[in-house]
Design goal:
Largest sheet: 2 strands, antiparallel
Structural class: alpha+beta
Radius of gyration: 18 Å
Order of helices and strands: HHEEHEE
Low-confidence stretches: none
Helix content: 10-25%
Shape: extended
Strand content: 15-25%
Number of strands: 4
Number of helices: 3
């Protein structure tokens, strides 16, 4: 509260200089190296959607995807936490959208 810039919000143009452009390009290159196809990136360069074969995903993220049957529904679940390694290892904070189990109510 003692700062002269307190409550002076950044504009979109000012905020753009902090977007992870080179990091996003490195992640895209890593995914492409594993034959995964980037479908889109969010406008702030903080996440990407990609598609590809299960075997390519497993190789890129160093995990195994297993299929399980829950009732009459088949789902895919990562055996271990998916993570990139090498130069891009610390850039992917989370990998989502792998399984399609959805959330179940507790009651």
């Amino acid at each position: 509260m003692g700062s002269p810039t307190y409550h002076q919000w950044m504009t979109g143009a000012e905020l753009k200089r902090f977007q992870p452009t080179t990091e996003l390009e490195a992640v895209k290159a890593e995914l492409a190296a594993h034959h995964l196809i980037v479908v889109s990136a969010d406008p702030d360069n903080c996440s990407v959607k990609f598609t590809g074969r299960v075997s390519d995903f497993e190789g890129a993220f160093h995990t195994q995807l297993n299929r399980y049957q829950l009732g009459n529904k088949i789902t895919r679940v990562a055996l271990t936490k998916p993570q990139l390694t090498g130069a891009t290892g610390g850039l992917a904070g989370a990998v989502t959208g792998i399984n399609n189990t959805g959330l179940r109510p507790f009651h």
